[in-house]
Structure formats: C-alpha cells, structure tokens
Specification:
The structure holds two protein chains of two kinds. By secondary structure, chain A is α/β, with parallel strands linked by helices. Helices cover 36% and strands 15% of the residues of chain A. Chain B has eight helices and 23 strands. The C terminus of chain B is likely disordered. Classes of the chains: A alpha/beta, B alpha+beta.
Chain lengths: 313, 442
C-alpha cells in the first residue's frame, strides 16, 4: 500500500523555477507593502535576522526605493540567539539606516511578567513581549514572514490577518480576500498582521535569495559546530542549557534551515555551503522546514495552531 | 509572460475534490516526508488499506470546532514549467463566498463531477460563478472514470453537456477542456492512463502547464491605481517624485500619453522604475513606479490611465454584488467602497434583482441580499470613481463593499452586469433589448 508513495517520494522534487513566477511573487509582495504604507499609521516589520525577515526587508526596500523604508523594525529577542544572527541583524539595520526596536524576553522574565518554562524553551514566551510592544508602540500593521506552505494551520491564513485587542486571531472575523483589494480597517487597539510572503514556498524563497544575491547569516550554510542529539534533533550548546546528562557534544558539519530560539532550533546535517547547494538540498529534501527543525512545532499536531490563536507570529 | 498560474478548484467532497487536489500535490512531489508520514499514520488509524490522499488537504482541529472548513485554503505545487497557486474552495456550504474568493484571482477554474452523476446543478452554479468572476479558462475533471469502467460514451456525453453550458456562459470552445480522471488511482491527473486510449487530450497537469495564462486581453487599455507617492527628498534624490502601484491592466511605455483621474489632467510617462531598475515598458501585474513629465498633484487613490482610452468617471453605476456579509443588504444601505487604492463613502440605492442559485433564475426588486446571494444593484458614491466594466477589466471593474461600522468586508462588487446569463438561464426566453439596457458593453 504505502510502497508506491514511498518510492515516488524518494526522488528529488522539481528544482527548476520559472523566473516569471518569482517576478509575480515579488510584484505581489511589493504591492502589499505599498498598500500598508498607504493605509496604516504605524506599521512595523518583524525582523529577527532570519531568512524570511531578511527577504521581507529586501522587498520593502524595493517597494519604496529610492526613498527609505517608511517602517520601523521590531525584534522579539528570546535571548537565546545565535550570535552570528544578532551580528547580522545589527549590521543590516545600520547599513540601511533603519530604526530597530528590541523586545527582550529577558526583561519580561526579570520583572515577573513572564516565567521561565521548566524546559527552558523561550519560543512560546515571545507572544507576550510581542503583544506588549505592539500596544506600547501603537503599531497597527505588523509584517511577518509567514508563508501558507509552511504549516497546515497557515493554509487558510489571510494576507491581511485581523487581530483583536488581545492580539488574538479569530477565525470568524477573518475577511474574504478578493482580487488584490485588501481591507485593513480595524478598531483602535486592534492590529493587522500582514504576510507579504503568503504565496511563496520555501523553494521560491531560496531561488529569490539566489537571484537577488541576498546576504544571510552564515549559519544558514554548512559549518562546523559542536552539537548534541535531543529528540532526533541536533541542538547547539548555549546559554539556554544543554547538553544534559547523557547528551554528548559532537563536532558535525551542519546548517540551519530556520533561525529561532537556540534551545529548540535544530541544525540539520548538511554540506550545503552555497545558495545553489542549499537549493539542491531543499528541493531534494522530504521534510518541511518546521517539521524538521523546530521542536516547538512538534510538541503537538496543533502546536502552531494554538500559538497562532494566542497571538504568536 | 508569467509562469505563475493561479487556479481555483470547485466541487463537492463527494466528487473527490480533496483526493484530486491531494493527488496533484502528491504526484508533483510537492508533499514532503513528514506530511506524508502523518497521512500514512492517519490512514492506518482509520483502518484504510491505501493512504487517503484527501488527508493531505484535511482540516485542522479548530476548523472542525469553529467551522472554518468552509474557508478557502491555498495549496502550492510546482513543475519545471510552472508554479501553481491553487485556491481550494469547499463546495457544499457557503459556496458563493468561497468560490467568489478563490475565483477572483484565478486564471483557470477546475470543476469536478462524478462520472456516475455527470453535470449536476451544483456544477452549473459553480461554472456560473467562475464565469461571473471572469475566470478565463475552465477545466471539467470527470472524476471516478474508473467507476464507470472507463466508458468513452459516458465521458463524451458529459463533455458535450458541459461544453454547451460553458458556451451559454460565454466561454469560447478553446477555453474549455474536459478530462476523464480518477483522482483515487491517478488516471490522467499527472500521468496518462492506459485505460483511456480513446482520450487524446492532455492530462490535467499537462493542461495546467501549457494553458495560456494571459488574464487580460492583449489590447486592454493601461490602468494604474496610484498606491503611494515616493518622494525621498534625500541628498541623492532631492527632486524624485514617483507614483508607485501595480499595473491593473494593459501596458505602459516611456513616452506614453496618460491621463490622471479624477482630475483629468494629461501628461506623459517619462520613466518607469521597476524592482530591477529602470525599464522602457511594463505590463499588467508588475509593481512599478511611474515618473511623469509634469509636477502634478497626484495622491494615493488616483488612477493613471491610457489617455486614448480612459475609464469612465462615475458616481452612480450599476453593479453586481456577491454578498459575503452576515447582515443582509437592504436598499439605502450606507457602505464604504474600496476601488483600486481609493476608499469612498457610498449608498446602495437600489436592489434590482437577486440571482437565485437554486433555480438559476432571478428575482426582481428583492427586499434584501443575504449571505451568499448574488444580486444586481445601483451604487452611488460620494466621489466619482474611474471605473471600467468588470467584463472589460477585472481589476478596475472590481471593488469591495465594506461595513463602515465594524470594517468587515460585506461584498465583492463587479461593475456592470458581467453575466447577464445569471438572469436568463433559459436563453431562448431572454429579451435581448432588456440585456442591452443593463449591460451596454464597450
């Protein structure tokens, strides 16, 4: 029964990508950025230094060239970052003369608004600092790098996703999106999450990064790293704890497919050291990005769904 | 030419739509190992002997709890020739809301029928909505062809009946393709079936890969809603003033004469800045920034159009509304209309007719339009809007109706009566003069 499926899944998927498709996705994203600039008072781009947010920023720069990007950036900092990524983040911000707001999870823990989880994972803790920052800065549109192909919970996500005053996503209040006419109206205190990359796939993202020669943090490419195995994932040593007893550090050639909280973002064994090699690997890979390397998404089938309703990215 | 094809599927669960979509994703190798594992496990849990591909597009827990299975889901797959964005629209409940949403951006619609039942009422309704929304290409997938023993006459009969219906809706023969498939076994979805030697047409995927994707007529006049005015005022660009937007129809070249609406002032395009630098010509779908010869007072919401063929400027117009809101529409309703990049106050002054989805006929002067109703209305706007008939220009003929009280989207609006057939399903009884009155045409 399952055999035919397994066999078909073994060979690599399509690698070639029509350039026209990337142009169409690029124009769509730029249109979305400009709509938001035209209709909202205080938009902000969520920017972690990861590849999706770096791509977002690249498209925003194109949308308003030769004027500067008319938005601030916001990073919800778990404190469990890879130093290469923070370095990259600060470099990009300086290079483009942008304004970066940082909401540090540590500050929320220090003053008691948040409590560290027993497992040390801080990804789920990002929601409160995110919502607090949105409220404090009165951000009314929040750009995220979410894509509909990432995860099943996102397949029905809108490009303009309305959040109530508690940051929650209410399925019944989501609006039908017709043509390229987006409705961003919201009540005071509410905001709209905006996903310009909704229609991109992981492969589209990499092809575009290649085509535009977009610089990314080095950890996306193969490098040597001390890692230990937990729950089938290669985790790096860091201030977030680990390795625990019985977990041994091994030197491996790895790369990261996503960049998140170091305590739960796993590396994959890879020798892909260039964009082209990464594309070949992604195209051949049979694991979705999140399923492969994000422990927090594997907690339960509906993990992402639950967090999203709480106001997560 | 774009190599991204946007398509919408319509059909009911019973017709095997989820399985067909699952099959497309699966056979184009767009399904990844962890997803596939989950499907294997779930299929085994249900005691199935073969993996149920429909689970690839199955709903989530909250959908079951909150009823958003009725929502459009977007799926992605790609081949070396094209990338596809598939709007998967549920068939049974709220079909209008979902089909309208999926169809609004689709260049092709895939309708599904069960070979044992042939073209049914719902097929006609879905086809009518796709036609109304101006989806240029139709595919009828005659599914479960294995269950009728791969019978050619059955296929021929269904194909003939559907072609006739599509022709009534205004589709030229070349834009309608009927394909015998079995989503369950995979016949003619991606791979050609050896069980249908009598079928010489393309498989579904072959057709999707090769069908022409031009949404607009080649000679459509240029339309450009201004989204944003770019004025850097930086040392490098002290005097730069560009008008940013996405070309809604036609194409534009440096040197073209254009008119700015609603002011009516004419000028010349002196430059086009694209995401890849300056260019001489840009076409429909491209996001660009236009530079104009004169320093004009142009703001977001204005429309730049071909001077030789501008849209009409109107503050009262006939329109067809696809009503998507929970509260019903009654004559005299105060609403907001978003057209291009402009949002204006408006009144729905008259309800002229309501299309009855059950009988494919219309009711004159209804009291109201309710969720999922399609009806013809008269809209009066506080400011004149530069509009085209939807039948001529999908982007500048479309608008949203928004509730000023809570901001929700109440309706998708189409300028004019893009599909008079909605009112006259029995064409022989139609009065051509009456049609002329509501749809004057270009």
């Amino acid at each position: 029964m399952a055999e035919t499926l397994a066999i078909a899944g073994d060979d690599a998927g399509p690698i070639l990508q029509a350039d026209g498709a990337l142009d169409a996705l690029e124009s769509e994203a730029i249109h979305i950025f400009r709509e938001v600039a035209g209709e909202f008072d205080r938009p902000v781009i969520l920017f972690s230094g990861g590849k999706d947010s770096t791509l977002l920023l690249h498209l925003a720069i194109k949308a308003f060239w030769p004027a500067p990007v008319p938005f601030a950036l916001l990073h919800v900092d778990t404190g469990h970052n890879f130093p290469e990524v923070i370095e990259f983040r600060d470099k990009v911000v300086a290079q483009h003369g942008l304004r970066l707001e940082v909401a540090a999870v540590q500050d929320w823990i220090d003053d008691g608004r948040l409590t560290e989880r027993p497992d040390g994972t801080r990804n789920p803790l990002q929601t409160v600092p995110l919502l607090d920052s949105i409220t404090a800065h009165k951000f009314d549109a929040v750009f995220g790098g979410g894509r509909r192909d990432e995860e099943r919970a996102r397949a029905k996500e809108r490009i303009f996703s309305l959040r109530n005053a508690f940051g929650q996503w209410e399925p019944r209040r989501q609006r039908p999106e017709l043509w390229n006419l987006y409705n961003g109206r919201h009540r005071p205190g509410e905001h709209v999450r905006v996903f310009p990359l909704s229609n991109w796939t992981e492969l589209d993202v990499w092809h575009y990064i290649e085509r535009e020669n977009i610089e990314l943090p080095a950890i996306y490419y193969a490098h040597q790293r001390e890692v230990y195995l937990r729950d089938g994932m290669w985790l790096a040593e860091g201030p977030w704890g680990g390795p625990r007893d019985g977990e041994t550090l091994i030197n491996k050639t790895v790369r990261y497919r996503t960049v998140g909280d170091g305590s739960c973002t796993g590396a994959v064994e890879s020798t892909a050291a260039t964009i082209a090699e990464v594309i070949a690997e992604v195209a051949a890979s049979r694991l979705t990005e999140r399923g492969a390397t994000r422990a927090d998404d594997r907690m339960s089938e509906a993990a992402m769904e639950d967090r999203k309703r709480e106001g997560y990215f | 030419m774009s190599q991204l094809l946007r398509l919408a599927t319509a059909g009911s669960v019973d017709d095997g739509k989820s399985t067909l979509v699952g099959r497309l994703l699966y056979d184009t190798k767009s399904v990844l190992a962890d997803t596939l594992d989950a499907v294997h496990r779930a299929s085994a849990d249900r005691g199935l002997s073969t993996p149920d591909l429909s689970l690839l597009v199955d709903g989530l827990r909250s959908e079951r709890e909150q009823g958003i299975t009725i929502d459009v889901a977007y799926r992605y797959f790609a081949t070396p020739k094209r990338s596809f964005v598939l709007a998967d629209t549920p068939g049974h409940v709220q079909y209008t809301r979902n089909t309208v949403t999926g169809a609004s951006t689709a260049q092709l619609g895939v309708l599904l029928v069960d070979a044992r039942n042939g073209v049914v009422e719902q097929t006609r309704r879905h086809a009518a909505v796709l036609a109304l929304l101006g989806v240029p290409q139709l595919v009828l997938a005659v599914n479960k062809i294995d269950l009728v023993g791969y019978d050619e006459p059955t296929y021929r009969r269904i194909a003939k009946e559907f072609s006739a219906h599509a022709a009534e809706l205004g589709y030229p023969e070349s834009n309608v393709v009927t394909i015998p498939v079995s989503a369950l076994v995979g016949d003619n979805v991606v791979d050609r079936s050896d069980k249908t030697p009598w079928y010489e047409g393309p498989t579904l995927l072959e057709h999707l890969e090769t069908v022409p994707v031009h949404a607009d007529a080649e000679d459509a006049p240029f339309r450009f809603p201004v989204q944003y005015v770019i004025r850097p005022r930086t040392a490098d660009f002290p005097d730069y003033r560009g008008y940013a937007g996405q070309i809604a129809a036609g194409q534009v070249s440096v040197g073209d004469e254009v008119v700015v609406l609603p002011s009516g002032i004419s000028t010349t395009v002196t430059g086009i800045d694209s995401p890849h630098g300056p260019k001489q010509t840009a076409e429909s779908g491209e996001s660009v920034t236009l530079l104009l010869a004169n320093d004009l007072d142009i703001a977001r919401g204005d429309l730049i159009a071909a001077a030789a063929a501008p849209p009409r400027l109107s503050d009262e117009f006939d329109a067809t509304l696809c009503w998507l809101g929970d509260k019903p529409l009654r004559p005299g309703a105060r609403v907001l209309v978003k057209h291009g990049a402009r949002t204006v106050q408006a009144l729905v002054t008259e309800l002229r007719s309501r299309f009855d989805e059950q009988t494919l006929s219309s009711v004159d002067e209804p009291d109201s339009l309710s969720l999922n109703d399609i009806g013809r209305v008269v809209v009066r706007s506080a400011e004149p809007l530069p509009i085209d008939d939807y039948a001529d220009s999908r982007r500048t003929g479309a608008f949203l109706v928004i509730d000023p009280a809570d901001g929700s989207t109440l309706a998708g609006g189409l300028v004019g009566a893009p599909l008079s057939q909605l009112d006259q399903p029995e064409l022989d009884q139609a009065d051509p003069a009456a049609q002329d009155l509501v749809s004057p045409g270009p």
